[in-house]
Amino acid sequence: MKENRKYPLVMILHGHGGNPENYVGTFERVASSLEAIVCAPYGPYPIPFERGHGYSWYPAPWFFRELLTTGTSTGGLTQRRKEIELQEQTVSRGFVLAAIDHVSDRYPVDPDLIFLMGHSEGGVLAYGLALEHPNLFRGLIVVGARLRESDATPEILTEAAGKLEIMICHSRGDSAISFDHAKAAAETLKSAGVQSRIFPYEGGHGLTAELVQTIGRWIAARCRN
């Protein structure tokens, strides 16, 4: 790193059961060409598999079901579920914001060039976080994700309009999350004045080398501007 120079920061949020090391390795060459700092934090919830384990941004379904049957709520189980979702959403977003602060305190991050990228479950989280804090991020990249209605209320979208630019990457052959979610998100964002564009690609639910290069070029263009 050069003295007295600030660098772009790319925060990458992995998908459900993912491992952040895989994303860092995938983006290593892109980060080098961009001269950017890349951070891929672990989701706070470990998920065990037969070989090793991955991580998630939200509790496992069995844990979620247990929570639904505990505690009290005047609105019954439906209201209880909404309360839990809000709690977990707040925890996960705070976790990522703390990671950004941690990196920014230790490295020369350019506060005007912070990019947030999320894949699958991480993309759902990234949508909500970036739309809630549109002034914090220079750009948002989502891959194979969906935009939740609770993250796209008229109030939230009005605040993000003209501030946040979104790159929506989705494979036409994605069997985990339908390409229709990308089209619906783009339509919702466009109608509210939030700048966004769909980048379709072939490759199922994962990331391809070609897609990673496309994302790198998109980020580079916004760093120059």
Keywords, separated by commas or semicolons:
globular, two-stranded antiparallel ribbon, 8 strands, 6-stranded parallel beta sheet, 225 residues, Rossmann fold, alpha/beta
Task: Please outline what is shown here.
The protein contains 7 helices and 8 strands. By secondary structure, it is an alpha/beta fold.
- Report the average pLDDT across residues: 88
- Spatially, the strands of the biggest sheet line up as 2-1-5-6-7-8
The number of strands is 8
According to CATH, what is the class?
Alpha Beta
* Low-pLDDT segments: none
What's the overall geometry? Answer: globular
| Quaternary structure annotation | single chain
CATH homology superfamily name: Alpha/Beta hydrolase fold, catalytic domain
Per the CATH scheme, the topology name is Rossmann fold
* Number of domain modules: 1
Largest sheet: 6 strands, parallel
Percent of residues in helical segments? 40-55%
Strand-and-helix sequence, N→C? EHEEEHHEHEHEHEH
**Approximate strand percentage:** 15-25%
Q: What is the CA-CA span between the terminal residues?
A: 21 Å
CATH architecture field: 3-Layer(aba) Sandwich
Radius of gyration: 18 Å
What layout of secondary structure does this protein have?
Blueprint: E1 7-13, H1 20-34, E2 37-39, E3 45-48, E4 53-56, H2 61-68, H3 76-106, E5 109-119, H4 121-132, E6 139-143, H5 154-160, E7 165-171, H6 179-191, E8 195-201, H7 209-224
Parallel strand pairs: 1-2, 1-5, 5-6, 6-7, 7-8
Antiparallel strand pairs: 3-4
Helix pairs in contact: 1-7
